[in-house]
Amino acid sequence: MLLYGASLIYGFTGTVSFAGVAAAAKTGSVGLVFGLVFLLAGLCFKVSAVPFHMWTPDVYEGAPTPVTAFFASAPKVAALAVFTRTALTAFPGIVSQWQQIIVFVAIASMVLGSFAAIGQKNIKRLMAYSSIGHMGFALVGLAAGTVEGAQGVLVYIAIYVAMTLGSFAIILAMKRNGQALEQISDFAGLSRTNPLLAFFFAMLLFSLAGIPPLAGFFAKFYVFVAAIKAGLFTLAVIGVLASVVGAFYYLTIIKVMYFDEPLEKLDPMRLELRTVLAVAGIFNIFFFVYPGPLVSVASSAAKSLF
């Protein structure tokens, strides 16, 4: 789909450079819009946005956990960067056309990510649906099609990577007698057997749910403000409601850790996992103290696209 879309765009514009495509796009030819639809479908597949998300839960659950951790972070950053760059640099003249697609994909991803995760019993599968939802939130910023929107996407993806790597460090550390544990029920009573691990995981989950003053709240704040400034009120409202629904399944894990009867102690956590968790956890908890550097870097990067 990605390749077919790119070939259609080349066919109707006669160029593969972003500047050339942007100049040709002002005519708004139907063929170019078809190419754009296919191109965006391919990119949606890469960020696992609805309706191209079907592979994600099975792959996340079936792959070895370190591979899942990689899938959940690195390709998402790269694909969202390509998504933002392509839409804003190559097609600034036909924002109204691609904005409709992004708004639909963002709403569908946020809603499905929030509701489908509720019934999950496997933590990696739950993280897959969580990731689908978060890609929806990130695309809210892109849908705005403004400098603030692009800045919101960049801030969101940076914070999302920290939250995800921290969460997967904990999932990788969940071993008992050398056996990896992946069920949510395996977290029962973690606060009593390993209070520090439970605390960091709770903070990361609260952050993923977007609860202030943690980093995840600011990630959502920036994209929603950009959407409101661009007049996309319905999108912002649906996003906030989906965020409330999503908080339910994060809080369920916290309830299991803090209120259920404890199981046997876990194996000791490896040093590299402790390091990743410490960096991600501290960034998450103390981001509100000094958000300036990340926000200013994202702002200058966003301005360079316009």
Structure description:
The chain is mainly α. It has two domains: 1-46, no CATH class; 49-303, no CATH class. Helix content is 75%, strand content 1%. The protein has helices at 2-13, 18-25, 30-46, 55-62, 65-90, 95-116, 123-144, 147-173, 190-193, 195-209, 215-229, 233-259, 271-286, 292-303; strands at 175-176, 179-180. A two-stranded antiparallel ribbon has the order 1-2. The protein is elongated. The relative contact order is 0.12.
The largest beta-sheet arranges its strands as 1-2
What's the number of domains? Answer: 2
Q: Main β-sheet, in a few words?
A: 2 strands, antiparallel
Give helix and strand order, one letter per element, not per position. HHHHHHHHEEHHHHHH
Output the structural class: mainly alpha
Radius of gyration: 20 Å
Please count the beta strands (DSSP E, at least 2 residues each). Answer: 2
Overall mean pLDDT: 90
Low-confidence stretches: none
**Separation, N- and C-terminal Cα atoms:** 27 Å
Could you name the key traits of this structure?
306 residues; mainly alpha; 2 domains; two-stranded antiparallel ribbon; 14 helices
Summarize, please.
The chain is mainly α and 306 residues long.
Topology summary:
Blueprint: H1 2-13, H2 18-25, H3 30-46, H4 55-62, H5 65-90, H6 95-116, H7 123-144, H8 147-173, E1 175-176, E2 179-180, H9 190-193, H10 195-209, H11 215-229, H12 233-259, H13 271-286, H14 292-303
